[in-house]
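Issue 218. Parser rejects a valid record. Input:
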Amino acid sequence: MDVSVLRETLRGGLDKMHEAEVVLVGGHSVEDKEFKYGLSVTGVIHPSRVIPNTGCREGDKLILTKPLGVGIINTGIKGGLATPESVEQAVQCMSALNRKASELMQATTVHACTDITGFGLLGHACEMIEGTEVGMVIHAAAVPYLAEAKGLAEMGIIPGGMYRNRDFRLHMVDLEPGVPEVLSVIMFDPQTSGGLLMSLAADEADVLLAAMHAEGLTDAAIIGEVVGEPKGRIVVR
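Output the parser choked on:
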């Protein structure tokens, strides 16, 4: 590996730390056959400002702040099938902090929030309502995703994690007949540095969404709502 790759990786990490206004306080190196780089976060938060990933209330709206499909695009990159445009879109998506979205939501009544990462949208959404007295309805046509992810998924360019996610959580998900299979694949696609899924008071959802769009989070969308039935399940329609 050329030393320039290491240099650019460290520079990228430092740029993000500056953007997040945090300080690097230590680190260590690992000798391995594969190149890897990561950061762990240590901080303090007041208990009253913690927003858990459970607590959705019937009538809440659901906002997703980033598009899906990063896992599929990354699989396409490994196979040499992703276009430069989709690579750039995926990189921009993964490198965007969730800071602005999290700051904006603090001005609203958010009852529950989770980040969308390795379990995919539907996997993390299941965590939010599992064993509770509410369920979710997700409108597949409203879910944002990277455009090329759909074509790659239709070609069978799908990460192995999608199948594991689907096998693990499909028993909690009702896919209505009109939902294209490729969209269910995208919704189970494991994400790297995905967006936030928020469950918030319905009368504040449009205001928050407008604020996000005004701040450049143009992919943010209202993708569904929290319902009283079916309890502990997600209906995708």
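Fixed in the parser; the record now loads. The chain has a mean pLDDT of 95.
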